[in-house]
Amino acid sequence: MGQANAASPSPGAHAAFPAGRDGLGSPPPAPGLQPLISMPSSDTLSRSSSPHQSSSQAEDQLAGLRDVQARITAAARSAGRDPATVALVAVSKQQPWENIAPVVAAGQRVFGENRVQEAMSRWGELRTQDQDLELRLIGPLQTNKAKEAVGFFDVIETLDRERLVRAVADAAQALGRAPKLYVQVNTGEEPQKAGVAPLEADAFIAAVRRDYGLGVEGLMCIPPAEEAAGPHFALLAKIAARNGVAGLSMGMSADFETAIRFGATSVRVGSAVFGARG
Predict the structure, then answer these.
(1) In this structure, are residues 245 and 274 in contact, taking their beta carbons and an 8 Å threshold?
(2) Domain with 154 in it: what CATH number?
(3) Amino acid 97: pLDDT
């Protein structure tokens, strides 16, 4: 969604603020499948790698990455879409650095993390050297971590309540930068999951724009594990369309090809790239 889609803040709303390096309201890029533009130094990539990591381990990581990239390309073409419109978000949460380093070295630049502190510890040094790196927060965000998250991440995909929106808006105002923001929708209305209920999504998106002066770049969902994912992806796409939202973060290792068929602009893939976490 472009910035023009965001309503002007009403009187009393948060004032406008400068955007992050990609610019507030710019359409989400799809760099997950793009060729490598700039490489961090080999010292940086190996800073946390185990000296005992075998070449076969690195080859396993690259094989997973290439397989997922090929499947994204095939699924997009099958749906009549340009593969470049689908970004691969490699979910690096809880992965050891020796699993991540070969994937970074191969050119993958978009990564998803669940926890603020873990991400800052893992990526803080590398992101100062690699301006093409994009980090997305895809896990729940506590309000007391909002300022750190706003200052560190390029995308926050889990806005789901007004108190959090207020904290993000305050942090963006204080820091003079804003990450791209996605609203998480609980399409299955599961009580154990975060997210805005589908029937409340329109009003929530409008409030984010109107009351807090924030742009909504996209929507995210995690379908119930025991249900077919397609209807949930279709519902999220319908909500996005009627609210003028361009980004659709949906699909994980087990169902990302289905998500692409329903219009996903980014897919969050962990185990299919890195293997199951130990």
Answers:
(1) no
(2) 3.20.20.10
(3) 92
